[in-house]
Amino acid sequence: MTHIYETIILGGGPAGLSAALYAGRGKLDTLLIEKGSFGGQVATTYEVDNYPGTDIGITGPQLADKMRKQAETFGTKFVKEDIVNVELQDKIKKITTTKGEYLGKTVIIATGASPKMVGFKGEADLRGRGVSYCATCDADFFTDLPIAVIGGGDSAIQEALYLAKFGSKVTIIHRRQGFRAAQYLVDRAKAHEKIDFLLDSVVEEAVETEGLLTGLKIRNVVTGEVTDFPVDGVFVFVGYEPISDLFVGKVKMNDFKEIITDVYMRTDVPGVFAAGDVRETTIRQVVTAAADGAVAAISCEKYLGEEA
Ligand code: NAP
């Protein structure tokens, strides 16, 4: 007979790893399924300076590694598999991966979010050939070359500061004058000798030469003027979208396909919980994702106690 886990966690980012820690420590028989590398988006972040209790200067991959090791200590089983289907309605939930099937009494959806595309002409074609969504992965390719960053949120400004260690110059292209990013980040970028700003500006098109990005066509949204901007790399940080396609029609979502939960991280399906960036929430930080994971695991424990 197939083993029935008490909890199956889908996703190994901060929300999933924190849920694994709490579920394991609560002695729940727990499985965590992750398709890529553990740590989620934090694993592609250069530096995390706002997660309590960690050393200043800790890198995203280091923090992710610490989280995974801590969660493993308490007995959660980890597998690296690609989930292809979920059946959540019945009391026993079924998760199908490319390698097999897993049964669980509760499920925590912690699949996170992935970077959004801007939609300029050539963006998809030049991905990996000058267009990137991950500074820690690709910064090195642009050592001593001019780099552009698109966006005005925390990600754009923080990653621009990181990219300035590599590029000859970093230009932040943002569609308006105001920034969504925290003021201290904006101040640091403004004070940085290698960073400058192109505001009220949007990228319309990528210019390529022999299959590689060599420039951008940028339109000023106030004057309408379009200018050519030579650049070797453009990093896009215009927000994230939830990784939730597998759950459409199976749990309640908002119009952005974010899963709706209550404060206990319960979805509208009994025994199914959601945590972190995949759910409808206002603040998306490593610490809030980790908190969601903890709440979800404790809620699973409570649900299992009530169902027994
Ligand atoms: P975000 O806060 O949603 O900001 C997205 C930025 O991209 C905004 O400035 C937005 O402009 C711009 N944008 C959106 N669509 C665009 C388009 N089609 N063309 C041009 N520009 C576009 O996203 P984020 O910076 O990725 O941050 C996501 C979440 O993670 C936030 O909650 C953030 O606080 C958090 N985060 C925190 C940290 C940290 O604490 N250090 C680091 C990274 C991320 P408008 O402002 O005009 O809408």
TrEMBL record:
Chain ranges of the FAD/NAD(P)-binding domain: 6-293
Binding note for cofactor: Binds 1 FAD per subunit.
Record has Oxidoreductase as a keyword: yes
GO biological process: removal of superoxide radicals
GO cellular component: cytoplasm
Oxidoreductase in keyword set: yes
Reactions it catalyzes: [thioredoxin]-dithiol + NADP(+) = [thioredoxin]-disulfide + NADPH + H(+)
The protein's required cofactors: FAD
Family: Belongs to the class-II pyridine nucleotide-disulfide oxidoreductase family.
Subunit structure: Homodimer.
Protein's name in the database: Thioredoxin reductase
Organism: Proteiniclasticum sediminis
